[in-house]
Design goal:
The chain has six helices and five strands; from the N terminus they run βαβαβαβαβαα. It has about 170 residues and is an alpha/beta fold. The chain has a domain of about 120 residues: Rossmann fold (3-Layer(aba) Sandwich). The longest helix has 17 residues. The structure holds coenzyme A. Coenzyme A binds next to strand 1, helix 1, helix 4 and helix 5.
């Protein structure tokens, strides 16, 4: 059984991520979408919230499971019997960062390879930060994120008076 891990921050998940998830789930027998806990970025949504949004969006894909992980992604992959990491490539600008990460991961565990999927062109310019910024200034983000995510963005940003209110590691929403 070919198991792959698609790791990321997913703060929040966008249609760009979901495009990669759907295509990877058609290639591998099982896909684990792995949400990094305690990233160096300060997330807007808690790990639990990010997982809930992902799980809801991935419900139509029965071979996709969403989990949180901390520590090295290669250790997480090994613990799940996965030998492939999936990453999306949006533009040339992603290449250098992804090249360094894939090379480091191979140095850490030569049994784990990274497979890249080119992001579909309609999502090539999206990032979670950009979506948050558009939402923060009242723009419509439903073209780029599922309706449930757009709603949570609105609620979270409204609660902070339009300013992003970074998640600070507490387990219940503020
Ligand atoms: N469509 C839309 N947006 C995409 C995308 C796609 N296909 N692919 C990436 N992005 C965006 C994300 O939204 C994110 O945008 P943001 O910066 O505005 O939030 C950005 O690209 C990169 O995010 P992501 O893919 O989540 O990567 P990351 O840099 O946040 O996290 C990990 C990368 C989690 C894979 C990496 O840090 C990791 O493995 N950490 C664990 C520790 C470890 O093992 N370290 C050694 C690794 S060498």
């Amino acid at each position: 059984m070919a198991v792959a891990v698609y790791p990321g921050s997913f703060d929040p998940v966008t249609y760009g991520h979901l495009d990669i998830i759907a295509r990877a789930s058609a290639i591998f027998d099982r896909l684990l979408v792995a949400v990094l806990e305690n990233p160096s970025k300060t997330p807007l949504f808690s790990t639990q919230e990010r997982l809930e949004m992902l799980a809801e969006a991935c419900r139509p894909l029965p071979n996709v499971q969403c989990e949180a992980f901390s520590g090295l992604v290669v250790d997480y992959a090994r613990s799940r019997g996965a030998r492939v990491l999936v990453r999306g490539l949006r533009a040339v600008s992603d290449f250098e960062y992804e090249f360094v990460m894939a090379t480091m991961n191979r140095h850490l565990n030569a049994e784990v390879d990274t497979v890249f999927i080119m992001t579909s062109s309609e999502y090539a310019f999206i990032s979670s930060s950009l979506v948050k910024e558009v939402a923060r200034f009242g723009g419509d983000v439903e073209r780029w994120v599922p309706a449930g995510v757009a709603r949570r963005l609105k609620e979270r940003l409204a609660a902070s008076g339009g300013r992003p209110q970074p998640w600070q590691g507490r387990e219940a929403a503020p």
